[in-house]
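Recap from last week: sequence in, structure out.
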Amino acid sequence: MTITIREALQLPDMVHTRLIAGAGGLDNPIRWVTIVEVLEDTSRLQEGEFLITTGFGLAEHTEKLASFIPSLAKQRLSGVAIHTGFYLREIPETFLTLADHYQLPLIEIPTEINFSTITKAILQPIMNRQFETLAYSSAIHNRMIDAALSKGGLPAIAGELAALTGGVVSLVDALGFEVTQHGSSEALPLDQSQEIAHRVPIRANREHFGTLTLTKPEHAWKELDDVALQHASTLCALEYVKERAVAATEWRLKGDFVEELLNGQQMTHTELESRCRMLGYPLTGHHLCVAVRVEVADQTMLGDLHQSVITLMRRLSDRHQRSYLLRERPHCLLFILQDDQTSLRLLEQLTSRWRGLHPELALQIALSNPCEQLPNVVSASEEAMFALQAYPLLAQSPQILRYRDMQGYQFLFPYHREKESLLRLWNPLLEPLIRYDTKYNQQLLETLEVYLAQNGNGLQTSQALYIHRHTLKYRLTQIEEKTGYRLEDAHQRWQLQLALMARRLQQQLYPTNR
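Predicted structure tokens:
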């Protein structure tokens, strides 16, 4: 720790010195005392040093005389003391003007005072404060370690910091969640300009975990508070590393369990109950399978993005006191949640928070139908995955697509696994239209799509296509002739609609095929 120029001038051995200029810098901290008689190179001086000199050689060199004060101010010295009576009989007037301009305290030391007296007078309190800091630092370290080992985690560390400093401590993680806050805000001044907030990043292995902030009234702030803040941030980083290791183990155990369920491994009710209890997931009630995908062009980023989604999901589920199971797949994440309103709110918050954190990366979420028994998540996972594959056809981020709301595409569920199955659904009906369009440069297929989308309303269809009603009538007649289906028949219209959907789905799932 240091003392200021103001404090140094009040020391008993400094009473005969005199501040003659630069009063604006009286609160500059003195970090060390340097005695230089022949000052050849000011660039070697360090920020915060207090320079004592006789001014040897300055009087004979006009250039050195003019640059003396500016060069010291450039090095951000705390102050300068000139021992008059040896080489400078009196301090030049230009020194006074420049010292005031740069707010660099300029002190005159009379001839009768020795260098050693001044040096000892200033260094002794600095050294005493350094020892005080070391002792305080050690005490802080011990108290913080005790807090960290109390199994109280991040709240315990933040609480101990608040108790030690008497300030308000808040911890915000890298995702913007306020993890904890301690200390009474009543102690802070009503005028926010009178308080100081120091923020320290929480980092480990170049990874940013969050920010620790200590806020106190300006008049009550102590340099030792920064020591406590640094200790606390280090322990918070260690706590986050520990949390990451625990989460990785939990993630692996949950993933293994889900994989066994998806592979159809037979388990007794007792075994299921035991595994669920160990992982903190309720076996009772209905369950949802949730497929989550980050839409990103660079697939090498998926690993980090999946980790971000998992971390965000963990933070949100902690707030809702909601447990879940998780399995990572190459291109998506599979979550298993209880089927209730809390889970739906959690997923809505997941999309909202993700959009705030990564507006350029769309998050797609698809839900299965509820399943009554946990082993039934095999079929539920297939529903969620199918809905996720069809997501671009039916929804836009941040919408959540449910299997039951797939606008009829769920009826194609058994056929999506093979492109040939989809092809057999639509090709017999639509191939004649495609072939005709290609040969005669017509738009029969597009006309059919718009006509069905407009619920068979001819006026709206012709307006949407920007064609005359007679042209529309001719095209509809051609469609009926080529497909052999009557558009007035509801059942046959539905088959044509299903064929169009099958074709769109094939184009989505197998983009190399038409």
